[in-house]
Amino acid sequence: MTSLGGALGGASVAPRALSGDAAPLADARRLSFNQATAERHPLGDVIDACARNGVPGISIWRHKLADAGLERTARRIRDAGLFVSSLCRGGMFPAATATERAARIDDNRRAIDESAALGAEVLVLVCGAAPDRDLAAAREMVGEGIAAIAPYAAERGIRLGIEPLHPAFAAERSCITTMREARLIAERFAPGNVGVVVDVYHVWWDPERAAEIARLGERIAGYHVNDWLVPAKNVLMNRGMMGDGVIELRRIRAEVERAGYRGPIEVEIFNEALWERPLDEIVRLTKDRFVEVA
Amino acid sequence: MTSLGGALGGASVAPRALSGDAAPLADARRLSFNQATAERHPLGDVIDACARNGVPGISIWRHKLADAGLERTARRIRDAGLFVSSLCRGGMFPAATATERAARIDDNRRAIDESAALGAEVLVLVCGAAPDRDLAAAREMVGEGIAAIAPYAAERGIRLGIEPLHPAFAAERSCITTMREARLIAERFAPGNVGVVVDVYHVWWDPERAAEIARLGERIAGYHVNDWLVPAKNVLMNRGMMGDGVIELRRIRAEVERAGYRGPIEVEIFNEALWERPLDEIVRLTKDRFVEVA
Question: Which of B:221-240 have CB within 8 Å of A?
Fold first, then answer.
């Protein structure tokens, strides 16, 4: 792993394009290709395609990592010279029984170990939904789960990034749906230990968006771009390539940068039509759109 | 029109079942059948089915009203002895040009006239989405639109009810997505002039839900029940009958009643499978579930 992601996280290396109020162009050195954007392709091929097309960073999903093998993947990423912005995903804390909740904690510890082995900066937490109808109880379990793994993550130098998901996922994936709610949990811990991942797909609609991004400040543990397509059909698969939807990407990036964030920017797109395209075409389109509109 | 809806809105007639902290059963005298729940049937038939099955209230959509005729519908509702909890819908204020925005204002005035002719207590406002990507500008247009029609509504005794929609509709139907945002607009006007409609489908996930319902207090201009089905597919059509999904209906009703709301409770369900059933079956199922689980 190179330390480019880490270097970009430091205030002293803010790229030229980022000076001023709203950066006119996204700096390609910050681009991290989230592997879910090429879901149909094996992880090894995606690593090579990033290196081949000048994409400096990658974000990795655990189910793909399990297929490809941890040691082998870590070596391949090192050899390709990519930085790893994040591992997706930990979380999923709420469960009906104490035994099951403990098993989820154990799995999160394994995810932290994997993050460390890959040199990932952040473990993204998708917090999980209520096992029954009780949202308040589920939110408690999330707080308890993060408290249970935070020291383990700190010891291994892995930052936890709570990713609030769009409210459309509240019943099935995450009872944590707003930046405000994620921030209130994160603030129980040191900023370098637990932060918040801002994904435009999940937060673009929020009337508190700009204010919350400002409040997050150094808590921002990652920034993800994509787009919201219109008309929306299947909400999970409604993500599009930057520029194809209605999200004010430049405005949100300016908000995130005013808050002080200078780290990697991940492109994460779940989209069947995109997934069917050839790998190099996906990676090149991602890079082009990233520079043009993100 | 009978004045049952209005009577239930008064503090002096709080039904017995509503004393105590959380009403164990919903009082069927508060039930209003939103006509969209039987979308495939003509309005006249729905009015008759409500009367025949002991459903005391109805909520009417304007496209159905246009088909059935205003005067004729008003007479039929009077004859059936139903109260009209609301007319759906005004709003849709944001538009790309001043001419188009003025046309929307005119249309809202017509909706207010129709509400008055029907004896509806509330005109529900679905506020509209941004004509381009600019959410902040669209929100401004919503505030301006409501300000333009509020005096006209007050003169005719019609209350405007801003309905925040689930964030999944932010790109296509309403840039107003949270109770908090709706409340901040409503507070520019007298409570009897502009309130907020609380629909569980749109707000159940909100971490600020209980606090915002309490803050709304006398601003609550309507309460709508249905359910959020799992797994979610098409978000617009993901509504289910009360009890078939994951929404904590009793808890939310208790919150609304603690805030002081004693008015009609509408059942509004957009669901293809339900729509295909015979009209009397839909109305009876609605009433049964309303009493059992809402």
Answer: 228, 230-235
